[in-house]
Amino acid sequence: MGLEFDYKDGQTPLDEEEKEGLKIKSITTQGELDDFEQLNIEKAVEWTIHIKWKVEKILTEKFIKDLHKKMYEDVWKWAGEFRRTEKNIGIPWTQIGIELKNLLDDTKYWIENKTFPPEEVAIRFKHRIVSIHCFPNGNGRHSRMMADIIMESIFGEEIFSWHQSNMIKPNETRNKYINALREADNGNITPLIEFAKN
Ligand SMILES: Nc1ncnc2c1ncn2[C@@H]1O[C@H](COP(=O)(O)OP(=O)(O)OP(=O)(O)O)[C@@H](O)[C@H]1O
Ligand SMILES: [Mg+2]
Q1: pLDDT on residue 4
Q2: Cα of 114 from ligand 2 centre, angstroms
Q3: Average pLDDT over residues 170-192
Q4: Domain positions in the chain
Q5: How many other CB atoms are found less than 10 A from the CB of residue 140?
Q6: Domain 16-197 has CATH 1.10.3720.10
Q7: Among the bound ligands, the one closest to the CA of 166
Q8: Separation between Cα atoms, residue 175 and residue 177, nearest integer Å
Q9: What pLDDT digit, counting tens, does each position of 23-67 carry?
Q10: CB burial class (10 A; 0-12, 13-18, 19+) of residue 74?
């Protein structure tokens, strides 16, 4: 379709097959794509807040996929399906299922044993899931929504403020966010927690 998006720092490009999966053929710019995705995500937020989710339901591969589907199904045919291609961010795609299972098991363990405070459980989960990079795209927004769902539905706490930003624009706030992720890659989770809380 000859459509070229620009990729901002810390974003994964789509390959041709994934671009084919665009459901709304009238989209020609990154800005239009951002807007359609944002509308779809707002519907997904409505869906999550009208249901009282239990821990056993949230920390499953099914819920992870269902949430991605709800967030992006109006825009992308592959919404809710794990990727089958390699990306510049993320583990080899063949390892996604097993690594996600490890993460879900670790998270249940942290909760049961009160290993970390709620905000740290949510942000460690967010960082690990976005590092796995389960989906062809939309992983960052999905991981941030998962962190909020963990806070609200598992711990009964307020959701994060994320610097009052959806981080779509490549600005100062997004740079701070990417730097905090890099710190987390190096084993220091604190800046990402602070970023999320402020
Ligand atoms: N160095 C990094 N280490 C870990 N994760 C990273 C790094 N750079 C980027 N990321 C993550 O990858 C995400 C981008 O992936 P993807 O494009 O699939 O998500 P998105 O939802 O479309 O983007 P965004 O997060 O910008 O809304 C970023 O949000 C960030 O969470
Ligand atoms: Mg993206």
Answers
A1: 54
A2: 33
A3: 96
A4: 16-197
A5: 22
A6: no
A7: 1
A8: 5
A9: 998 887 788 888 999 999 999 999 988 777 888 999 999 999 999
A10: middle
